Amino acid sequence: MSDNELVREVFKRKRGRSQMEEDAVEEEREDLFRLTSVEGGKTYSFGRDGVNIGRDPGSCGIVITDNNVSRVHCALSVLQSEVCIHDKSFNGTFVNGRKIGRGRFALLSDGDVISVVNPNVNKEIGAFSFTFTGQINKRGTAPLDRQALMGPLDFYELGPIIGQGSFSVVRMGAHRVGGGRVAVKVIEKRKIAYDLVREAVKVEMQITQHLEHRHVVKTLNIIDSADFVAIVMEYISGGDLFDYIVGRGKGPFSEEEAKYLFSQIVDAFLYLKRKGIVHGDVKPENILVSFDDPSTSASEIPMAATEGHQETAKTISPRSVTLKLSDFGSARYEGDVILLDADNSIVMGTPTYGAPELFCSGDTPSASQPSITLDSSTDVWSLGILLYVLCTGALPKRSGCEVLLTSQLFTFSEDCKDLLSCMLRVDPTQRVTMEGIARHSWLEPYELGGTFKDEDSLAATMSLASPLAVRSNRPSFGPPK
């Protein structure tokens, strides 16, 4: 992995794949979808890796050598059983005669006709048009389609899938009455066979419906039906922090900009700390970027706008960004006991950002323990990795369980490096507390989290002097009574 760029990593769980995951791996090797040229009937098949249409043979699987066609005119991407077409052209991509528009996308259905020239002006479009055919070889368990979700979700017009996980998908949507955009996380009950997964879904529902903070994605509604759970959330238009960081390139932020962004996330975690909640999966992909965005009517949802987030990142000042924490699928309450696998690891969160007591089987204080009692120290470690990424645009190097604070930080202040050192202690009992982070001199310009309890203030003061926060014997928190 290069030190000069942040690379999205995919980590395989140590547990066996579900049948759904095995099917998905097989389908990556298959041709599942088809485009048929309106003129001549030539067919082009593609699988889950999608296909590009355009003038450049190096970038496109379907090449049209015409000056009216852009280098990459449009891109077809696959999310589970659905295909979206993204318009990247200057002259327009059309579906059934309707222009999508550059930077926007449409959800494709069987029989849709895609045109890379305007069919309303140019009648001889056969060589520039293709008919779309949906899944050719259906196998496995496809996600519930939009029609199957109607009834319980009648108040919302559902659009395309905009994200997915092992047991859920997230769809864009709009309220039929108010017209405001929403994001709808759909968790299918047939896919959550394990008791631990069912319990995690239950905890996520319990936690998210009570959260109300300016830096946490707001849950608007939770619908628990016979076949699925739907968590309706505010829609955040700016993509995630990962895309924002990557889009800004090497050294994405100045120290002051990194501080400004990080302070927002710390504020959210102080709020969670007071509620006794451990997020459990802190990473840029789970932090959303918000800025001004117009509402979208329900009728516009199938072709709702989507920005090229990485492409526009350089034009958006960090000072105009509001960050919002999302995805509480790994969240637990402080005091919850989590059992470790035989190799002292745990299926929770993401290894790159996860605390060593959760993922590292080396010489850690928890290495010989069969379980871990969760508290906010696991989130503190992950926030330390996040701060490093904000400062450098790269993931830190490691030596065993330890993180190495390299020369990439040479332009940053001693206060910044001190805070990172306090957060990235392998021993969780020696890490700075969440309150200690907020009280650290590096974040002094920001008033975070309001008033602390006396013992928290004492611990934070000790963190500045030692510079470690000595954690008191705080009582364990559990679910609200």
TrEMBL record:
InterPro entries, sorted: FHA_dom, Kinase-like_dom_sf, Prot_kinase_dom, Protein_kinase_ATP_BS, Ser/Thr_kinase_AS, SMAD_FHA_dom_sf
Top-level taxon of origin: Eukaryota
GO molecular function: ATP binding; protein serine/threonine kinase activity
Binding site for ATP: K185
Domain FHA: 51-100
Residue ranges of every copy of the Protein kinase domain listed in the record: 156-443
Name of the molecule in the record: Inner membrane component of T3SS, cytoplasmic domain/FHA domain/Protein kinase domain/Protein tyrosine kinase, putative
Taxonomic source organism: Angomonas deanei
Taxon lineage: Eukaryota, Discoba, Euglenozoa, Kinetoplastea, Metakinetoplastina
